[in-house]
């Protein structure tokens, strides 16, 4: 079994869908599962729908119509527009958007995270339905799967945890490997069959879940880059291709925020030594990057990672007493309570600094709670830079023209929080 994952950039328009077909014809698709993300920036557009649903109902229908219009344009490019009334895909997509409107009309839950997962999921559902129909039309016969019937999770909405035993049992008993299957990334469902999501960029993780449960031969992630690079080309100049990376090294890079591979993707693959390939959907016959059990990285060069929109919180005790175990324990309980993802910590005798990702927008409540016991300095919208396998030239280059708020070095890694 081969598992292919195509991201939103690879299917952002009709030409991208046609290119997906071309990739399959070049590399083959026998005994294959395809996992696909939402098209283009659909997730962002649906987040705008959510924002209007909660804060500006007057704009809700307009923003929802924009999402439908975007997909309808792709449909008209892929399928004969004269057949709009007869080709079933048009009605199927319309039905999905009607279902979404119906949910928004009848929903009574004020829980943003719950509503988020129910709404955002339609990006992947529509995307895969269109691609499945198109491939069937061009004689690549396939079966569309609703991933929510296969991947079971808890109800930690927006970052659900997989119920591995239930998921393994369902996939083992229900999955038909005799046909080409197409399903959604990013999604699952809880015990009440409400939709859950696995975290942003979670489609890679979905591919790894299926690979683990199916004992797949390999996983290939198709990207708009030639493979895993030593730096994100959006933020760094002259990035270089990493030809081979060990599981351990890839997990380290993912943990620090490398955007090419989702942090949770690698553990299940490593457990069964399933190789992961990262390749370009524009040049599918190039070797790309292989992640496997071989040690280290090739070539051995500094790897640069940046995480934007972070928050640096610095604490000291009001009476200048030591920041010791009791205080640190209390701080971490509050970070957990307010769902702050911790990226860096640094402490001295009388101070404690932590760089966090304020994913759930709970920062005001956290700060209010902390102020009862600590003196606080807070820097919002900072950037966290990480260099794996640094040398001092790479640090000097990164520090240029930046205000460094925190710096931490270990033997293999340096991290800088900067404005």
TrEMBL record:
Residue stretches in coiled coil: none
EC identifiers of the protein: 2.7.2.4
Pfam families in the cross-refs: AA_kinase
Molecular function per GO: aspartate kinase activity; ATP binding
Class of this enzyme: transferase
Annotated residues for binding of ATP: 234
Domain Aspartate/glutamate/uridylate kinase: 3-280
Keywords assigned by UniProt, alphabetized: Amino-acid biosynthesis, ATP-binding, Kinase, Nucleotide-binding, Transferase
Biochemical pathway: Amino-acid biosynthesis; L-threonine biosynthesis; L-threonine from L-aspartate: step 1/5; Amino-acid biosynthesis; L-lysine biosynthesis via DAP pathway; (S)-tetrahydrodipicolinate from L-aspartate: step 1/4; Amino-acid biosynthesis; L-methionine biosynthesis via de novo pathway; L-homoserine from L-aspartate: step 1/3
GO biological process entries: homoserine biosynthetic process; lysine biosynthetic process via diaminopimelate; threonine biosynthetic process
Gene3D superfamilies membership: Acetylglutamate kinase-like (3.40.1160.10), Aspartokinase, catalytic domain (1.20.120.1320)
Top-rank lineage group of the source organism: Bacteria
Reaction catalysis annotation: L-aspartate + ATP = 4-phospho-L-aspartate + ADP
Keyword Nucleotide-binding attributed: yes
One of the record's GO cellular component terms: cytosol
ATP-binding recorded as keyword: yes
Similarity comment: family membership: Belongs to the aspartokinase family.
Name recorded for this polypeptide: Aspartokinase
Source organism of the structure: Gelidibacter maritimus
């Amino acid at each position: 079994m081969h598992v292919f994952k195509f991201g939103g950039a690879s299917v952002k328009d009709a030409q991208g869908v046609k290119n997906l077909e071309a990739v399959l014809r070049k590399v083959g698709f026998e005994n294959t599962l395809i996992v696909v993300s939402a098209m283009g920036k659909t997730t962002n557009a649906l987040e705008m729908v959510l924002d209007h649903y909660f804060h500006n109902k007057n704009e809700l229908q307009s923003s929802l119509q924009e999402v439908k219009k975007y997909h309808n344009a792709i449909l008209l490019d892929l399928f004969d527009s004269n057949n709009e009334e007869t080709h079933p895909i048009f009605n199927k997509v319309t039905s999905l958007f009607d279902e979404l409107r119906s949910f928004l009309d009848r929903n009574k839950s004020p829980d943003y995270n719950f509503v988020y997962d129910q709404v955002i999921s339609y990006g992947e559902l529509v995307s895969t339905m269109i691609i499945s129909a198109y491939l069937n039309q061009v004689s690549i016969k396939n079966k569309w799967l609703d991933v929510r019937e296969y991947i079971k999770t808890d109800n930690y909405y927006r970052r659900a945890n997989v119920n591995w035993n239930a998921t393994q049992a369902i996939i083992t008993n229900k999955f038909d490997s005799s046909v080409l299957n197409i399903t959604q990334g990013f999604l699952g469902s809880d015990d009440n069959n409400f939709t859950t999501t696995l975290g942003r960029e979670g489609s890679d993780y979905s591919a790894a879940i299926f690979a683990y449960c199916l004992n797949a031969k390999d996983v290939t992630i198709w990207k708009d880059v030639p493979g895993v690079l030593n730096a994100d080309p959006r933020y760094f100049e002259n990035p270089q291709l990493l030809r081979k990376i060990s599981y351990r090294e890839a997990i380290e890079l993912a943990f620090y925020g490398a955007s090419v591979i989702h942090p949770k993707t690698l553990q299940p693959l490593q457990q069964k030594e399933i190789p992961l390939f990262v390749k370009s959907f524009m040049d599918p016959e190039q070797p790309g990057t292989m992640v496997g059990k071989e040690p280290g990285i090739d070539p051995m060069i500094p790897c640069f990672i940046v995480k934007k929109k972070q928050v640096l919180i610095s604490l000291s005790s009001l009476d200048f007493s030591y920041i010791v175990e009791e205080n640190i324990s209390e701080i971490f309980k509050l970070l957990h309570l307010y769902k702050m993802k911790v990226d860096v910590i640094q402490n001295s005798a009388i101070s404690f600094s932590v760089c966090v990702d304020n994913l759930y927008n709970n920062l005001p409540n956290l700060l209010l709670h902390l102020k009862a016991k600590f003196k606080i300095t807070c820097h919002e919208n900072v950037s966290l830079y990480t260099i794996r396998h640094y040398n001092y030239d790479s640090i000097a280059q990164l520090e240029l023209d930046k205000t460094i708020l925190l710096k931490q070095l270990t033997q293999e890694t340096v991290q800088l929080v900067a404005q």
